[in-house]
Amino acid sequence: MSSPKGSQAQKTRLPSFTRKVPLEVPSPTEKDWSKDDEEDYVFKDPDEELDSLPQPYRMINKLVNLLFDRSWEVIEERDALRKSELSRIRPTVYPPVVESKLNKMPNCMAISQDYVFIGGARGFSIHSLFNAKQIYVWEKLKVDVTSICATDLGSEILIAPVDEIGIVRLFYLYKDGLCLIKAINEVEDTSKQSTCLKMEISQGGDFAAFFLQGAGDIWLDVYKLPKESWLKEVEHPQLSINPKKKVRQLQLNTLDAMTSDNLEMDISFRGDVKLSLPVHIMKIKPPKPVTGTTFKSPLEVFAKIEDCYGLGSGQNHFIRESQWEQQAAVFNASYKKYLDGEWEEEPLSMATFHFLPPGCITATPVDVKSPSGVAYVLGVHWTGSHNFFLYLLNRTLKDKLDPEGVWPCAAPIAVSQLSCSSSYLVLACEDGVLTLWDLAEGFPLGVVALPEGCICQSIHFLKYFLVHEGRNVFPEGPVKSQMKCVVLCTDASLHLVAAQGSEAPTISVLVERPVNHLDEAVCAVAPVPALPGMVLIFSRDGHVHLMDVAKPHIICAFAPPRPYHLAVPWKPMFVVSFHHPCFLLRGDHPDEIKSTDDAKNIQNSLFYFNFEAYPLLENISRNCSIPQSALTANMGFPHELPLEKRCESFLQKSEEAEADSGQTARSQSSTHSDGAGLEHSRAGPKPESLTWAHSAPASPASTGRAALVAQRGKTRRVCERLADGMEGISSGKNAGCTTACHTLSFKYKKKIICTSMLVCVNNFQGLTRSC
User: Fold this and answer.
1) Is-cis flag, bond preceding 278, omega within 30?
2) How far apart are CA 741 and CA 767, in angstroms?
3) Maximal CA-CA distance, the chain
4) Core-most of 25, 224, 377, 395, by most CB within 10 Å?
5) What pTM, to 2 d.p., does this model score?
6) H/E element holding 460?
7) 465: buried, middle or exposed (CB in 10 Å: 19+, 13-18, 0-12)?
8) SS (H, E, C) 44-94
9) Host H or E run for residue 645
C-alpha cells in the first residue's frame, strides 16, 4: 500500500497539460469546438522546470548571459565586415617609384622648384626631387627642426626652418650657394626669448609675417624682405663684415659646412656673403576686449574715428559699463543651468593671416606704387573674433597702427584660406557658414552653409577644372570668378564647394561621416595640382587614396612597400609638388618604431610617387588641358564664352522661340479660318466687311521679316526702357551707357545689337558696384 506522500510524488512526476488561456465552459456540441484547441495547451515536463536562483547567483547568471550576447554581436559584426570586405571592389594599389634612405628621422618636408628640403636632427638637408639624391646637409643646431617653409623667388629660393625652441631663420639659396640671412627672433638673453608659433611668406617673397609668443604676450611681426638687394649682393659679394650683426650670428656664419663622407656636394655654404636684413614694418597685437565706453557724447565717438579706419571693429562705441553688466546678468540668469558646470581654460588666442594682392576690394592708394602681383595688404583674424582686419603694408614702425578695413562676420571666424593664385578667399565661421570672396573682381561669390552639425576643419583650393567629354581638363585661358574647393569637417566628412560668377554656390558631399568603420575616417586632404579634379585622401587606417571629385569615386591607392607603413596615420608626413606630378611620403619600419634606444642606427625611408609612372594616371597627367578655342566652339560651356557671344546666343534663341510661337499661332489661325470659311460658304455670299484677313496664305519671306521686325521692336523697347531708367543716374564713366542704349534703339544688325548690349551691361555692372 503506497503512502500518500509517495502517490503525491508520482503525481508530480507525471506529464501535465497546462492551458494558456483562461478556462471556460465548452459548448455541448462537438461541432462548435475549436479546431485549434490543441494549440492552446503546452506540454510541460516537471523535471525540466527551472527554479529561480537566489542571489548572488541570479546576478552572475545575468552577467554571463549578457557576456554571451555581446560576444555573439561582435562575432556577427566581424562576420558582416568580413563579407563586406570580400565583396568590396578594392582600388589598384601602386608602390613608390623611388625609395630614399635617410640616416635620421625626418620631421618636416617642403618642395620648391626641383629641390626637397627635409628638416630633422640639428638642421635640414637638401635633396633632388627627381632622383632623391642628397645634395647638401646643414647641421649646425643643437636641437631639431620641427617645421620648414620654402618659397620660390624665381631663380632663388627662400628657406625658413623653425627649431624646437621656436627660433626661425631665413636662408637664401641662389644657384650653388646657401646663405644665412638672419635669425628672426634669436636674442642673447634666453629669458627674453620668444617662440615662433606660425609664419607666412607672401607669394613672390616680398613680405613675411611671424606669429610670436613670449613673456606672457603674443603678437604678429611683419617684415619687408629686400629680395632685389639680396640678388645684387649674392652676384657681387661684399667681403666686409656688417658691424650691426650680432657676434653670435657671425660665429654661426663662419662655421664650416658639415658634409657627409663620400657625398658629392653641388651646393656650398657661403658664410662670407653678408645680405641685407629684413625691415621690420609692423607689430600687431590682439584686439582689446570690448568694454564700457569712456566717451561722454556721441560726437567724441565720431571724432575718434579718422578716415573710417577701424570702423566695424567695435572698439569705438557708446555703450556704458553698466549696460554690459546688465546684459551679462540677464544672460547668466537665463542660462544658469548650462553655466553651473566646470569651465575649461580658454585656449590661447591664435592669429591666422594672409597676404592679399591689389584688387577691387582692397584698392591700392594713389600714393602707393606697388608692382603687379605684389601683396600690399595683410588680412588677420584672431581666435574667437568676428572681424577680419585689413592692414596696409606700405608703412613703418613709426606709423600709427590702425586697420584700414574691417570685415565683420555674423559668427566667430574658425578657418580662413587664400587660394594659390591669391584671387579667392574663403572665410568659414563657427556656425558652419562659408563666405566666398573674389578678391580680383571685388565682390563675394556667395554664401553657403555646411550640413547641420558640420564644422569646418580645413579648406583646400582646387585648380579650376571642367568636365569635357567625360574627363577633367584645365582650361588654358584665364579663369575669372570661378573657383572650387574641398572642405574637411571635424566629423571627417568631405564636401565640394563650387562657385561661378553670379550663380549661387553649390555644395556636394564627397565622403560621408563614418558611422560603423571609424578607422576609415578622413584625417588629411591634399589637392593634386598636376591632375585636374584630383585630391589625395589620407585615412586613419593608414590608407592613401586618389579621388576624382567630379564623379566622385576612388581612382587608385598608394602604399609604401611592406613592411613599411605610416607610424602616425592620423597625422601623416607628406608633401605634394605644385609644378611636378609627384608627391613624397614618409614610411616607417616596424622595427624602427620599437627600437627607440638605438636611434642612430635606424634607417628611415622617404618614398617618391610619380603619377606619370602609373598606367591609370599617365594619360590624365599628360592630356589635362584644353585650349580656349575648343571651349568657345562648344556651347556646353556658356560661362567660358565672351559676353558678346552670350548675347548673340541669347538673341538667336529668342528669335527661334519667337518664330516657333508665331508658326504655332498661324497654324491655329489657319485651322480656325478654314472652318469659319466653310460655314460662311454654306450660309451664302458674305458681304465685303466679313472678308477674312488671313484668307490669303503669307509667304515664308514675309513671315520671317515680320518676326525679325517684331524681335527688333521688342529689343528696341527694352533698351529704351533701360536707357530711360539710367538717364537720371548715369554720370562720369557710366554716361556712355545711355548713348549705347539709344544707339541700340536705331540699329538692327545683330552684331551691333550685341555690342551695344555688352557696353550697356558692363557699364550697369560697374555702376552697381560703385553704388
Assistant:
1) no
2) 15
3) 136
4) 377
5) 0.69
6) strand 456-462
7) buried
8) ECHHHCCCCCCCCHHHHHHHHHHHHHHHHHHHHHHHHHHHHHHHCCCCEEE
9) helix 643-683
φ, ψ dihedrals at 554, nearest 5°:
-80, 130
Q: Which residue has the higher pLDDT, 346 or 647?
A: 647
Cell of 752: 551691333
Identify which of 385, 336, 386, 391 has the alpha carbon closest to the alpha carbon of residue 362: 391
CA distances from 348 to 217, 339, 354, 595, 673 (A): 10, 21, 20, 36, 85
Average pLDDT of 742-765?
39
700 class by beta-carbon count within 10 Å (0-12 exposed, 13-18 middle, 19+ buried): exposed
Give the integer Cα–Cα distance in Å for 304 and 283: 22
How is residue 521 written as a grid cell? 575616417
Give the integer Cα–Cα distance in Å for 225 and 280. Answer: 9
497: phi then psi, degrees, rounded to nearest 5: -115, 130
pLDDT band at 574 (very low <50, low <70, confident <90, very high): very high
How remote is the C-alpha of 549 from its chain's centroid?
A: 13
Residue 192 is placed in which grid cell?
Answer: 627674453
The order of strands in the sheet holding 108-112 is 108-112, 115-120, 123-128, 134-139
**Predicted confidence band of residue 732 (pLDDT cuts 50, 70, 90):** very low
Strands 195-201 and 177-183: unpaired
Kindly write down the DSSP assignment for every residue of 182-208, as one continuous string: EETT--S-GGG--EEEEEEE-TTSSEE
pLDDT surpassing 50 at residue 564:
yes
**Residue 96 and residue 557: Cα distance in Å, rounded?**
11
Q: List strands edge to edge, sheet with 351-356.
A: 351-356, 377-382, 387-392, 405-408
Residue 106 has φ and ψ, to the nearest 5°, of -80, 140
Instruction: Determine contact, residues 605/95, Cβ cutoff 8 Å.
Output: no
- What pLDDT, in 10s, does the model give residues 146-160? 999 999 998 899 999
| C-alpha cell, 95 | 608602390
Separation between Cα atoms, residue 520 and residue 743, nearest integer Å: 64
Element (H, E) at 304: helix 298-304
How far out from the chain centre does Cα 401 lie?
31
pLDDT band at 49 (very low <50, low <70, confident <90, very high): low
Which residues have CB under 8 Å from 248's CB, separation 6+? 186, 188
Does residue 602 surpass a pLDDT of 70? no
Report the Cα–Cα distance between both ends of the chain, in Å, rounded.
120
Distance (Å, rounded) from C-alpha 531 to C-alpha 462? Answer: 10
Q: How many other CB atoms are there within 10 angstroms of residue 570's CB atom?
A: 13
- Scanning the structure block, which residue is given the C-alpha cell 663620400? 262
Distances (CA, A) of 200 to 221, 226, 535: 11, 16, 24
Residues in the chain, overall count: 771
Q: How far apart are CA 764 and CA 735, in angstroms?
A: 10
Asked whether residue 667 carries a pLDDT value surpassing 70, the answer given is: no
pLDDT recorded at residue 197: 94
